Amino acid sequence: MTSKPRKIISIVGKHDSGKTTLIKGLLQSLKAKNLKVSVIKNAVTSLTLNSEYDSEILFSAGADAVYATNPGVLLTYQRTESASRLAQIIEMIPAEIDIIITEGFKQEDYPKIEVMRAEVGSTPLNIHNVIAIVSDFPLTSDKPIFSFQNPEEITAFILRFFDSSQ
Asked: Distance (Å, rounded) from C-alpha 17 to C-alpha 14?
């Protein structure tokens, strides 16, 4: 039995370029189309374990795993011997998920949308497999360029990209 290929798109950019903001807009647009979406965040710089939340306090105190749950939500903090590889995380995501969005993971081979903000820098990251750019300033590129203000247009582009590549 052959499983269908996973639809995985990476949102990449420099620190504070608006990756999370863009993903929030994409999530709203994708969910409005009744799609199931998972997000994997490369939290190397943003993961803090000094939070006021009990689950993070318990994990910081040394628990090997903490499972925080309430009706409809399960959050897991888990220690690993080495950094989890993206492919391993993707394998854990249920097959019924329609699209997986990763934030970060610039060096992975998945198709990428690069996010650029003038206040952060106007130089692209110089990475492979960029299929589009989201920018708040005018630039020239051989890739499609979108603004932050229209996540529906970016969503349509992403869905067309996956339809044409499968």
From this structure: 5
